[in-house]
Amino acid sequence: MSSTGFRRTFVAIGVCSSLALAAAACGSSDDESAGGKTRITVNCEPPRSAKVDRKFFEEDIASFEKQNPDIDVVAHDAFPCQDPKTFDAKLAGGQMEDVFYTYFTDVRHVVGIGQAADLTPYVKELKSYGTIQQQLRDIYTVDGRIYGIPRTGYSMGLIYNRTLFERAGLDPDKPPTTWEEVRADAKKIAALGGGTVGYADYSAQNQGGWHFTAELYAQGGDVVSADGTKATVDTPEGRAVLQNLHDMRWTDNSMGSKQLLIINDAQQMMGSGKLGMYLAAPDNIPILVKEKGGDYKDLALAPMPGGKATLIGGDGYMVNKKATPEQIRAGLKWLDHMFLTPGSGFLGDYSRARKHDAPVGLPEPRLFTGAADAEDQEAKKADANVPVENYQAFLDGNQNLRMKIEPPGAQQIYSVLDGVVSAVLTKKDANIDQLLKDASGKIDGILARS
């Protein structure tokens, strides 16, 4: 889900996918060489309106070119970095940059229409490649060939209010780990009264379908079959998701009477101290503080309840199929410099980020493994300006969860599932079995057409 806050939105930390600004249509028509240099075009440069981010991006390109005098980098604005309305048109028209931004969910589509360069022979030249989490590398691997490099990765978790937990007699250092515990804790928080809601969930603008998917994954289920041809929502796991929501809404009254919520509603409630828990990625936390009136000390993060899986999102870069071997090599060097060096570059210069009041110390993105991860975490810890101890449960719990991306045809499927979730939250007598049966048929139709 690309428009719901499942992206970072603060200075110098991955703003590329979070600002809904007009895209600047730029092609990759620049000559591939200039004055003997290898020239590459790249996209996702912050717009001029984001002055600090733009400055950092330009500084990092200048630093790269100084270290690599044989490479000329031409950066293009493109906000949103990957606008679905123009993305396919740019690909089909041959106007995509040499090195271009993609969401995880784009990969198979871009490869399927033959617009991505095969990077398999070149990744050995990418210094950082072996340090990147395998599950993220796998996203850009199709039929054993490598077509892209991940840049960030985020996973869903449970954001909760420590102060409300304490007031309700709950231990804020022991967040719920099962859906049964979520329900029990939400009931105690709602009992505080004064308009306090124990648990909130989305059910409009496709966001209900998005969260249903996350909760289904957490139950151990899936939205579509492994081969992508059949719906798999009409299952015990699917019924468990909806029954839990129904019981919290109608039996416990822990979700409040106002429904058809979207992410902004949940953020407003959490920021004002009136919400106990909701599902979100770590990038929501600075939004809650900077835009919604929250306080870092009150906000904590736990892994997805259930202990089975979590929905992940993220992005990376692919290379235009028209790129020359020299441009591919130059592009990989640029990615190493900009995004893939622990504690350095556009996303990893934590000292620079802190100087500009960006939050440092959030648990994600966590791109690396082994020694590279340790180096990156140490650099982050040195400049941390948020209460990192509030996120330890999330870090610990995520190690045992399966990471799963969104289903194919996600937005169409989410539209169908939106109706299912909204019905359960607005109609006490909603027939869960019939809702899932009907949704399954509609999703089958979507998959057949795609």
Automatic annotation (TrEMBL):
It comes from the Bacteria. SUPFAM superfamilies: Periplasmic binding protein-like II. The keyword Heme does not apply. The keyword Signal applies. Residues 1-22 form the signal peptide. PROSITE patterns: PROKAR_LIPOPROTEIN. Pfam families: SBP_bac_1 (PF01547). Keywords: Signal. This is Sugar ABC transporter substrate-binding protein. It comes from Streptomyces shenzhenensis.
